[in-house]
Structures are given as structure tokens and as C-alpha cells.
Amino acid sequence: MITIDSLGARPFYWQIYQQIREKIISGKFNEGSALPSTRALAKNLRVARNTVERAYLQLWSEGYIISNKVRSKFIVQQLNHSLIANITSQKFEQLQEEPNAISDIQYDFQYGKLMQNDFPMFLWRKILNKCLAMSFVEKMTYYTDNQGELDLRMNICEYLYNSRNVVCQPHQIVICSGIHYSLGLLSQLFREYTTDIAVEDPGYDGARNVFKNNGYRVFPVRLQDSCVDRCELEALGVKIVYVTPSHQFPTGSVIPIQKRYDLLDWAVKNNGIIIEDDYDSELRYNTRPMPSMQGIDVNDSVVYIGTFSKVLSPALRISFLVLPHSWLAVFQNKFKNYHSSVPWLEQKALQQFMNLGYFDSHLRKICLSNKKKHDILVQALQELMKEQIIIHGKNAGLHIMLEVNNGLTEGELIKLASAYGVAVYPVSRCWIRREQYSNNMVLMGFSGMNEKAIIEGVNNLYQAWFCV
């Protein structure tokens, strides 16, 4: 029986979502059984129908249910309950590049770039001045904790717990100067354990390059149902895998819940390590962010990586690691003489920005702003190019991957776009095995453009690709 607590702190749709999810996990809702229709459940609970629809959409996005379009029903998906028997309800309750620069480019769909007014400059300047006036400004005169400021790590812990279901303590967090530094640190940390690593194919080439530059042998693993193929992973015999489960780069897909448990099971059976890069998971536009893999890991197998580059500023160069308990002693032994790579002033400013509640309000603002841009981009592409395109990775993040079915190659698409004053970017670099790439896609970011420029840029792309 599903109930609603009208006085509870959780939204109604979230209460419905949690109760159904727990019934699926516990086996009370059997595989293949149909959930009540949204209309029937809404009537029974005396809530709006869209409240139930939102709960079902969240369950569907996480892979707990599938849609039976023929019967207009949502069907409970198969779960391997033996893998999740140790995951308690309390655990769940703890919840969630570029071509060369071209001078005449008017519309730049560069990924990861933010607009100037997206950064809270007035507040940041005010907080910096406040930090410099505080009594503990003496920290400007000496080296600080090699893992970063404790107060900031405490704030990050609280934020991760509430937003991403990451369960950790401040001593597990290491403040780093960007994703590449984070991965470089991990490469050094794990080098004596192994120098082989598996990565998604396609996947983030920046991570691949860091591993290679640190002497690792990098092995591509194809995606199957949005997740690295376990059979291929097992055959490689590697001990580490790098994944982007909550918004796969570049495809934008999400690893469904059962695949997450399968990957965690691989780690347990192979004494493996999963590096979870959660680079932009806060930016979901029609469902809540998918809870992290770290939050459902009960075997200390996941290293969690986060960043402030996508929601605050890439120029600040502030990222962080959440290390498993089992690797903390190794980290301290190896890096005890290192100093923090992020200046104290930036760390303290960010800590105050979070502690005073500004970060939460900023995050709401940036999500709303980018949702509008995302929706305008998708609508403009669909209205002009219709069935000649496929948009991959909608409804999240700061980019889409656009598949263009007009007979042109990736290089031709980019060159023609440039001739019409538009910069779009290659995705071929994301494939290690290029022969598996269809060679007709481009990467389009939207966060660095205003809504008017997005529409005009798409119009120019249509002229370049379909009217010449």
C-alpha cells in the first residue's frame, strides 16, 4: 500500500517514488507486474496526476520500470536481488573541444563554457573581501592541510549527502585543482596496485589522456545499455574502471540501477576499483539527479569525483575526490608531504559561499537558466531539421550529441558550419576504436550562449547543412 504524508518534508512525488522503489527492491512488486495507472493511483492518493507521472518518470529514468507502450502501462523491471540484499532501506534514506579558433565565428556551441552573468561576481567579491578581513587570514602565510580546508570538506560532505546520496566523512575528501589533477592523483595512488585501466568507449578523452600520461595501459570497453559491457570488462582482467554513470560523456545516457549493481558486483568479485566521475549530475532538467554509485556501494569499491566547474566556474579549478576508507592510509603515506593544490583564499571563499546558503540558490538559478537554453536548442533543432537528426543526451548537462543524417561526415559538418559562422565540435575523439563510430555526429554545448544566439546559430546550421 502506498501512502502520502501530507505533513512530511518530502514532496508528494518523492514519497511515491521512494515507496515504489523500495517495494521493487524488496521483491514485493514482482518482475513483469504492472504498476497502477497514473490516473488510478492519483485518484486513490488524492493527488494530481502529474505528481504520479513525475514519480514514475524518476523510476523509469533509473531503470526500475519500463514503459509498455502497447498497453500504456509501466512494468517492473528485472532486478538481481542477490546483489542488493545488503543495501538497507536506511542506506537509501540517506539520499542522490574543439577545432582551431576561427575569427569569424559568431555562434560558438563550445561545451563547458559559462556566460559571464552566470557567475555571482558581486557575491564572490564580497565574500573574498570578508575572508581577507577575518582573523584567520593568517592562513595566507603558511601551507595548509594537504587534503584541503576542513571547513570546506565538511560543507562538501553535507552537500553530497543531500544532493547525490554520497555517504562520506570529511577525512575522505581531497580538494583538487580540476578533474585532470584529480585523475593524476589517483593514477599515482593506484600505480603500485595496477597500471591497467578500462574506460568507456566512447568516453571522455581527457581522462584517457591523463591515464596514458601517467604510464597506464588504457583499454576501451563498449557500452551496452548505457554501461560498460561486463563480459568485455571481465575478459580484460583489469582492476580499475573509469565511468561517468549519471551522465555518460558524450552520449548523455544514464546507467540504469541494475547495471550499477552489476558493476559493483564486478568490483567485489574482482577486487576492483570503480572511478565514478560525476561531472555535471546536478544539471538534470526533467527528473531529479540519479543517486551516485558511491551511495549504494557497501564494499568500499568506489572513488567518487566531483567538480564545481560546470555549475560555478571552470576558471576556479576546484574539484574533489571522495576516497574509499581502504585507501586513506595509502593516500596519506604517499602524499603526506604534498600541499593542497588549491589556494586557501579560493577554498575559504567557496566554503563561505556554501555555508551561507548562496550555493544552493545559485544552483537553482543555473539549473533554470540552462534548462531554458537546453529546451530552446532542442526545440529549434527539431523544428528545423525534423527527422533528419537524432539528438542524444537530452534533458541533462551542458551539451547534446547531435547525429545528422544528411550524408555528410563529421569533418564536413564542422567545416560547413564554420563557413556559416557557427562552431560545433567533433565527438570522434571520444572513440578509441574509431571504426565503431558512425562519423556523422557533432558535440554542441549551450551554456555559453544566450537564447537568441542559440536560435540564430541553429538557423545558420540548417542553412549550412540542408540548404546548400
Task: Give a short synopsis of this structure.
By secondary structure, the chain is α/β, with parallel strands linked by helices. It has 15 helices and 16 strands.
Total domain modules: 3
Rg, Å, rounded: 23 Å
Please give the CATH class of the largest domain: Alpha Beta
**Main sheet summary:** 8 strands, mixed
The percent range for strand residues is 5-15%
Number of helices: 15
Segments where pLDDT lies below 50 for 5+ residues? 87-103
Shape, per Cα inertia axes: globular
* Spatial arrangement of strands, main beta sheet: 4-11-10-9-8-5-6-7
CATH superfamily of the largest domain: Type I PLP-dependent aspartate aminotransferase-like (Major domain)
Secondary-structure content class: alpha/beta
Second-tier CATH architecture of the largest domain: 3-Layer(aba) Sandwich
Beta strands, count: 16
Mean pLDDT: 90
Helix content: 25-40%
Q: Look up the CATH topology of the largest domain.
A: Aspartate Aminotransferase, domain 2
> What is the CA-CA span between the terminal residues?
60 Å
Describe this entry's structure for a reader.
There is one protein chain. This protein folds into three domains: 12-79, Orthogonal Bundle (Arc Repressor Mutant, subunit A); 107-117 and 361-466, Aspartate Aminotransferase, domain 1, CATH 3.90.1150.10; 120-358, Type I PLP-dependent aspartate aminotransferase-like (Major domain) (Aspartate Aminotransferase, domain 2, 3-Layer(aba) Sandwich). With 468 residues, the protein is an alpha/beta fold. α6 (150-164) crosses α12 (344-355). It has helices at residues 12-26, 38-45, 49-61, 89-93, 121-133, 150-164, 179-190, 205-213, 230-236, 257-270, 328-335, 344-355, 358-385, 410-419, 451-466; strands spanning 65-68, 73-76, 107-108, 173-176, 196-201, 217-224, 227-228, 240-243, 273-277, 302-307, 319-322, 389-392, 399-404, 422-423, 425-426, 441-445. The strands form four sheets. Strands 4-11-10-9-8-5-6-7 form an eight-stranded mixed β-sheet. The chain is globular and about 65 Å long.
